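Typical record was shown:
=====
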Amino acid sequence: MRTKKYSALALVVAAAGLSLTACGGADGSDAASGSGSTSTAASGSTDSKSSDATGSDSSGSDSTGSDSSGTKLSDRTGTKAQSAGSGSASTSASTCKTDHLTGTAAASGVKNEIVVSLKNTGSTTCTMHGFPGVQLIGPDGLGDTGPDAARTDAKAPTVTVGPGEENRFLLRWIPDSKGKKFTRLSVTPPNETVSEIVNLDGLDITVPADGGSSPDVFVDPVGYHVGSGK
């Protein structure tokens, strides 16, 4: 098809050249020569585009290349997970399950704030992303519950937690000396439905029992610190 188009174009150019030669002599020859150059350039451009398209189709990079990220979630568990965690991030790591987590609480060094650690007691690496569910529990047991912690506006990273490592989050509150004292937490890890009881180990949180019309307890997303040790 390209040969036929080029031949038709050449005939047109040749006819134009004859016409210009008849009318203008030497000037006509220049015009014909310019037209010939234009047709050659056009033909070269067409060949180049055809070659580019063929090269792209034959590479097969989209169909044969491996994709280690795939989804937005996997993107987050790549570079971000490595910077926040131990550097052993893996896109194949599964979500951390409550059954393989052990929670502890300690003072953070800031007034009316504690840090809660969730240790990976399993044998494989897992990932966490988002906010944990946290409910205050009084000294009388699970029937003695207080307000749920409200989420802050902090950005939630995706973190990778290796076996034996800990993933932490911060919990803070507005104290009320006339409120109720809570000594434990019911913690539900992100993307889980099973909670775990975490003792405050001598710490306590005193806030209104019902939480009132506005929240008195606030929780940050997981990822405050990830790794071994404090």
The two ends are 73 Å apart (CA to CA).
